[in-house]
Amino acid sequence: MRDSDLLQEVVSLYESEPDLLALPGVVFDGVIRLVDADVVTYTEFHHQTHDFRSMMSIDEDPAQRNAGLAAFVRHRDSHPFWQGDPAFFGERALRESDFFGEDEFMSLPIAREVFLPSRARRIMSIMLQHGDYALSISAHRLVGRAAYSDCQRDLLQAYRPHLLRAYRQAQQRTIDQLGPAERLHYAFPDLTPRQVEVAAALALGLSNDRIANALGVSLDTVKAHLKAIFGKIGTDSRLAVAAIAHTVQPFSQMPPLWKLDTGAWSAPAGPQPASDGTPCLDPTQPEPALHA
User: Fold this and answer.
1) What is the residue-averaged pLDDT of the chain?
2) From edge to edge, which strands make up the β-sheet containing 51-56?
3) Assigned domain for 88 exists
4) Do residues 15 and 145 both lie within one domain?
5) For the chain, what is the domain count?
């Protein structure tokens, strides 16, 4: 593959403008084309909650996945390459052939119990780290394929900073999908669900009377909620609540960004943007990890 092909993949990556739900599919297509991989895995780990998601570019039998997961957990500490430590990887793209000869790899328990049953043989991986998140992307080739060349390693390594930038942008796009209610909920977890509804309606410009009608409560109840909201947020200004609801970056209390359900806290005044749902876990991958 030529430098012009790498440039085309970089352009395609940025033009797609994915959020976190769409990003794995974009990564799968780009990496497969770039390094001529058969299968790509995408594993994302959230340090604060110890939660993770892992996906593959192809479907696999669930029973085989479960067996692979159990084996990977047993053997992942046998070498830093399997552990997916960002400090070990740094900015490099690493291949299994960088550490194991042909006969040595075929004799490894992790190879015999995790990879070879799926006919996976060649592995090349990169690690991305951003804030509380670690992302592993691994390109696999099936049994009978040649090892990844130095040129293909260099291509994936050159692609890595663009993937990191796209990952950061995807996180921000996911945040930007949050409406006022979601931002208030995550930024001020002491607010009750009803107080979130009232504050979000206020942030959308509704009067007390309209909030009361929308929620089916009395005007005095709305005023009582507003008093409690102002106390918890630390302001007595309706404009300040609106500004906070539309601009606050509510990272401190957030679950993993890929799990955000941006419709769950929608205000009664109107619909908020909704996500497509949480992608399935791929049980061939334990936390945070990495290559299976």
Assistant:
1) 84
2) 51-56, 39-46, 133-142, 120-130, 94-95
3) yes
4) yes
5) 2
pLDDT in tens, 255-266: 677 776 544 333
Where does a domain end: 176, 210, 227?
A: 176
Cis peptide before 288 (omega within 30 of 0): yes
| 80: three-class secondary structure by DSSP | helix
Together in a domain, 48 and 145:
yes
Q: Residue 148: which of 115, 129, 124 has the closest Cα? A: 124
According to DSSP, the residues that pair with 31 across neighbouring strands are none
Residue 58 DSSP class: S
pTM given for the model = 0.74
pLDDT at 276: 35
Residue whose structure tokens are 């570019």: 57
Q: Which residues contact 157 (CB under 8 A, 6 or more apart)?
A: 91, 92, 93, 126
Both 189 and 94 in one domain: the answer is no
pLDDT band at 290 (very low <50, low <70, confident <90, very high): very low
- Give how far the C-alpha of residue 285 lies from the chain's centroid of Cα atoms, to the nearest Å: 14
> What range does the domain containing 18 cover?
3-176
Q: What per-residue confidence (pLDDT) applies to 241?
A: 84
Place 185 in a pLDDT band, splitting at 50, 70 and 90: confident
